[in-house]
Amino acid sequence: MKQIRIKKILKITGIVVLIMVILIAGCIYGLWHNEISTLSSIEMLRDRNDEHSDGAIYRMNVKGDFYLDDFVEQGGVSNDGELIQFVTDHLTKGIIPIHMSAPEIGCSSFSAKTKDGDMLFARNYDFSKTNTMLVFTEKNKGRHASISTVDLQFLGIDVDQNMNGLMDKVISLASTYAPLDGINDAGVSCGIYMTYQGGDKTIATDQNTDKPDFTSTTLLRLILDYADSVEEAVEIASSYDLHDSASTSYHYMVADSTGKSAILEWTGKNDASDNDGSQRTLKVIYNDQDEYIGKKEANSDYQVVTNFVLQPGYYEASNIKEKKGTDRYDRIYEELEKRNGIVADENEAMNILSIVGRRSWNNDDKNSLTVHSVVYNLTDKTVTWVGNENYSDPDAVYTFSLE
């Protein structure tokens, strides 16, 4: 009888434990089912190659809305600390801390048209050795699907080794809030570029009106999710106060499938006096109305952007050295002028990017590598992506489609 009673107690205990495990598992799934699905999708596309200073390349398919509607509803954030807090509270439920930063980067972009009439947006991301995440988000509640690229060191993931274990994967969930460039399923593409504003010491744009707020990469995220056109992207940018991240300053280029593009800059009067980020205002340079910034710009429908402000008269003659990336800007324009802004296809656009790839280009700043090169076809909603200047290696060329 005693043995029977013990067996009965053990059986009941086992059932109770099982029920508790099921309940706990159910709670975990209820709280994190989208995050769990997202984590399970992470895969390495290409391993690191330390001899070539190549970091590893990963892909992540984001399940769910990653709380962007909540982000917009609360009025965005006004600094990196608030963004970190939002991402930590929502994506990890406050359990796992996440760190985000944005060091100095140097980049190049241009718009062009193919012989078949497709609109292209091309971009080099120049920095130093790092791991990269390609982030795929799904169409959700009136928001667009998108493909974007993220530098994982901005999230505090070690650049000198591959992502290790569950912790790094959980941290990479924050990638949705740190895109550097991307395309959405409406054929809108956008990129972010350093501008080094403020003279000897770079001063971040830090507007302070009664508008809601965004930081550097969250502007790009809002454009990818909500903009149907260049005009809608400009409207989004105009509706918020910009707070640039990590004491740096940026401008943006945005383009759409109609052939329209624009460069968005937040500036003061001129470089010598532009040392109060709160006084900067948004200026927009459209590709079909950019005659006032230069003769070659006036004669073309395509646009080029690197790392200096394009507003005319912004730089005084004595500060011309502050125009970072003029060598790349002029070289890309030279190639586009040869073709009247028309390239054969994505491969030819990629070839132009390769000409100013930083492993071979005579650098004008400390960024020694091109981490990724990408050509977005805004007409077909496709992506041609190459990591670490491996242009001649077919295994390093990735193509994706949003259709």
Quick description:
With 403 residues, the chain is of the alpha+beta class. The chain has 9 helices and 18 strands.
Please provide a written account of the structure.
- The protein starts with a helix and ends with a strand.
- A hairpin with a 5-residue loop joins β11 and β12.
- The protein has a 9-stranded mixed beta sheet with strand order 1-2-5-6-7-8-11-12-13. Strands 3, 4, 14, 15, 16, 17 and 18 form a 7-stranded mixed beta sheet that branches. The protein has a two-stranded parallel ribbon with strand order 9-10.
- It has 9 helices and 18 strands.
- With 403 residues, it is α+β, with helices and mostly antiparallel strands.
- About 1% of the residues have low confidence.
- The longest helix has 40 residues.
Descriptive key words:
403 residues, alpha+beta, Penicillin V Acylase, Chain A, 2 domains, nine-stranded mixed sheet, seven-stranded mixed sheet, 18 strands, 28% helix, globular, transmembrane helix, C45_proenzyme-like
Secondary-structure element sequence?
Answer: HEEHHEEEEHEEEHHEEEEHEHEHEEE
What strand line-up does the widest sheet have?
1-2-5-6-7-8-11-12-13
The CATH architecture name of the largest domain reads 4-Layer Sandwich
**CATH topology name of the largest domain:** Penicillin V Acylase, Chain A
Keywords: Hydrolase, Membrane, Transmembrane, Transmembrane helix
GO molecular function, one term: hydrolase activity
Family: Belongs to the peptidase C59 family.
Domain Choloylglycine hydrolase/NAAA C-terminal: 107-266
